[in-house]
Amino acid sequence: MTSILSAVAWPYANGPRHIGHVSGFGVPSDVFSRYLRMAGHDVLMVSGTDEHGTPILVQAEREGVSPRELADRYNRVIVEDLQGLGLSYDLFTRTTTRNHYAVAQELFRTVHRNGYLVPRTTMGAISPSTGRTLPDRYIEGTCPICGYGAARGDQCDNCGNQLDAIDLRNPHSRINGETPVFVETEHFFLDLPALADALGSWLQTRSGWRPNVLKFALNLLDDVRPRAMTRDIDWGIPVPLPGWEENANKRLYVWFDAVIGYLSASIEWARRTGDPDAWRRWWCDPDAQSYYFMGKDNITFHAQIWPAELLGYNRTPGRYGALNLPTEVVSSEFLTMEGRKFSSSRSVVIYVRDVLERYGPDALRYFISVAGPETQDTDFTWAEFVRRNNDELVSTWGNLVNRTASMIAKSFGAIPAAGQLTPADRELLAASNEAFGAVGDHLRHQRLKLAIGAAMHNAAEANQYLSQQAPWKESDPERKATILHVAAQVVADSNRLLAPFLPHSAQRVHEALGGTGTFLPQPEIHEVADLDGGPSYPIITGDYSAQPRWASDPVVPGTPVPSPTPIFTKLAPDVVEEELARLG
User: Which residues fall in the annotated binding site for Zn(2+)?
Assistant: First the structure.
């Protein structure tokens, strides 16, 4: 058993999340974590809502509420959506807890004490109309490096280079279009050049990463500059240094504190279990592994900024001791929608909640797993969503379960015992048993498409077996019983192979073959008090200790099998027109 940290990107709490978001961080991390638990590993899956920074301030101002009120509202919306999708977090929390403040400040003090956070005077942008600081990510202009016309003041999404807002050509505010005025301001910068050699050496040891992720991370080393880790803003974590912490207009950079959330969430989880040091098994044990899941726009912060923070902290560790660097940064590409980039403001969007209400969680989880942006940008279309649901989920997997359970219920009323096995029986059973190794190997390396393809192939082979053996025509009762016993075994195997992808329907398949009790534990929402006296809030958590094994488990003859009901719902063709009309 290996201790494995599943570190899932923190959704930003300025609005509900759409399916493009969960295709990058949500479903891939949950499939990975569920498989590892079934395979016997000790998994800690953590995340939460990211609630600091300028976008929260801007959105709160638009809605006429305080930043905390806005964060509270969308934290709850996101918690409900992710729990409904079945994401099996050990803890999904938030960055406005007092525990998170304390952990982030401890890392800042230690990295500063070790000499890697240095003060510098720089040019900050001011809004001429309001006199307020205009953070660099809210400034847009032409990239001075590649000429991209919509580069942000902190980074160009086209070439990936770190930028300073003052270097943009034709800079303007993304809020109101005005040209910012630049004035002197002092901030603490993470000394990335001093850490560049250590970063490079660490990246060179990374094997097995997706090639696009490792290449992008290594390319970042070509232009390493100090990066500001504080901001002129009044919403966020105070800078924990004398002369700074009393300044109401200086706060830690939201991206400095957000990545620390993986550690603070682990510490909060441990405290809530009654064993405050339990988190150390995933963070301080050199044999532990950690996998960070996100979309490609966050590679910079997880393959450069967070490792640099950890390297700076580990130079002379603080109270938490030496902390593990990421084993792998697992980044997905982007999901577009009907050929266009997701845009809430332009109504080119479908929110997670809407899909859950209309089609259920497993139809979406299946689409993301089989056709999501794993290694390249992928387009979501309603026509493809309906086709995948009807032709694959319903016609292949759902049909296998239904026809097998129906014939067993009608002919025997219970799973029959097998008689003499034929070569065809043995071949199918052997292939089904071997599928656990192949599917598991793909999942261990985050190859979801290959994994679910292999699992669905197992179901397709069983369908073909039933068609060839035709138990409905079989006049020999023993042979008929044997065929249906073999089919029931492959259905049970396939249910385990597909359980990480389709955790909700896995319970219904389990019951279709006469299973009782909980087959696969699901996440729950708990309302909790802040451990250190802050306001209460909802968390996602769960007890996932009772897992089915990642192996073939023999079906038990004599288990009663009821007449089944359909596992999946076939979608009508007019669903496509209805959904496209909503986009319009």
Answer: 143, 146, 156, 159
